[in-house]
Model the fold of this input.
Amino acid sequence: MSNEHSMRRVTAIRNGTVIDHIPQGHALTVLDMLGIDDKTSVPVSLVMNVPSKKMGSKDIIKVEDRELTQAELDRLALVAPDAHVAIIRAYTVAEKMTINLGDEIVNVVQCTMSNCITSNLREPLPHRLKVVSRDPLELRCHYCGRPQDLDELVNNVL
Amino acid sequence: MFVDKDNVHEIVALVKVGGTTVSGLITMDDLTNEEILEILDDAERLLPVANGELYLPLLQGRILGNLFFEPSTRTRMSFETAMKRLGGDVVNLGDVKTSSVVKGETLFDTIQMVDGYTDIIAMRHPRQGAAQYAQDSARVPILNGGDGAGHHPTQTMLDLFTIKQAHGKLEGLKVVLAGDLRYGRTVHSLSHALTRFGCELVFASPELLRMPAEIVSDLQAHGATIIETEDLYSMMNDADVVYMTRIQKERFSDEDEYAKVAGAYKLHANHLSDVKAGMIIMHPLPRVDEIHPSVDATRHARYFEQAFNGVVARMALLCKLLGVKVPSDVNKAGGAL
Done:
């Protein structure tokens, strides 16, 4: 099935943000990371397990009437580093954005080490994971230095 | 200090010391090899002050905050002794059970308070990363006296001092680290430092208590030669240092798991017949049964001197982090008690 057909599974949006090429099964985590929940008032469409030539299968999210900022999108680097992001205005792609993995991931996820000082969520300093290597992705907690288990980490979204 | 949660990574308190910028001592990575050797030289010159033979109030008017959130005898007392021998003063958190910590105070808030009362803080905390967290919260330097199973760099400095005293150098020695290498923070910090001085390392432990894989890979990435084994005794004969550690019951949540490894090594004087004459046996203490008292009288035993060296190494560290130069001739600078 072509990409065009996949995109037609949900209605085209007039204004907003489309996040395409999310790894299969990660759409809900992406929503979580973007803080989009049942209190969000704008329409949100989500398609999962769509066939994809490039990825085998993928997830797609469309958020209407909201243009996600670069800082918001960069939070997704952990789960969807290669996602394609388009800002839509009047039914056309006004801007294409990429997700950037910086040198540090701040206040997105919590260290996976149960005895890390940051496991006390009342402590006010930010959760900081340093990017030690990009390919393969390796992250370490700024405080305890523990390498992070990436599979476990996606369950630790703040 | 106000901390904006979103921008706090910009706010890291740095302390200017003698032209170098340091932010306390959290791990051994905070010191270069040259700085380590300078501090060990300072410690050597401070020996008569640590012994109480000479009065040298280099830190008069300075206050150390001792924050020990978990039990400590040697580290806490040696920090206190070091500060007082140098004419400084000490305030203690006291028993955690009677402090604000039991009322739910965060570490961040505790540090804000003590930061205002003191010039430097020595801290031990049961959680890993607590020392770095405290440093990021404070303006004064933090000396990490142990953070969970993380690091214990001030112990490493006294260990290095003890090794250099015995062998006259740090470079190229063969060091056997034995016992609880998984939870033992002293061996984590020490193995990093020894690697930087080109030592050959042997890690002897029960399978359950092996050195964490990420530490082994870090050390290997820095060029370390490492042998991992369960057999301690056969590795001792060509060693320059055998560093024993206690299997820490308090780090086990499961009594049965502890029972499997308790008493894994029991070093007895009988084991020392074929070791090198100059080989030294060290231990961060307290010991349980991993070193038999028969070893105490041998020329290899060095653990009680090692414990004393905690005072002199910490004196040198306090001076370094407070930006106070140790005089080249302490006898000239100091006075009789």
Observations:
- Chain A is about 15% helix and 35% strand.
- The first strand of chain A starts at residue 16 and ends at 23.
- Chain A touches chain B through 24 residues (CB under 8 Å).
